[in-house]
Amino acid sequence: MSDRPPRSRNPEGRMTLGQHLVELRKRITIAGLAIIVAGIAGWWVVDPIWAALSAPVLQIAQEQDREAAITYVTVGEAFDTRLIIMFLVGIVASSPVWLYQLWAFIVPALHKNEKRYAVGFLLAGAPLFIGGCVAAWFVFPNIVTLLTGFAFGESATLLTARVYLDFAVKFILAIGVGFVLPLLLVLLNFARVLSAQSMLKSWRWAILAIATFTALATPAADVLSMVLLAIPLIGLYFAACAVAAFNDKRIAKREAAMIDEYGLAASDD
Question: Cα dihedral sign for 141, 143, 148, 149?
Answer without folding.
Answer: positive
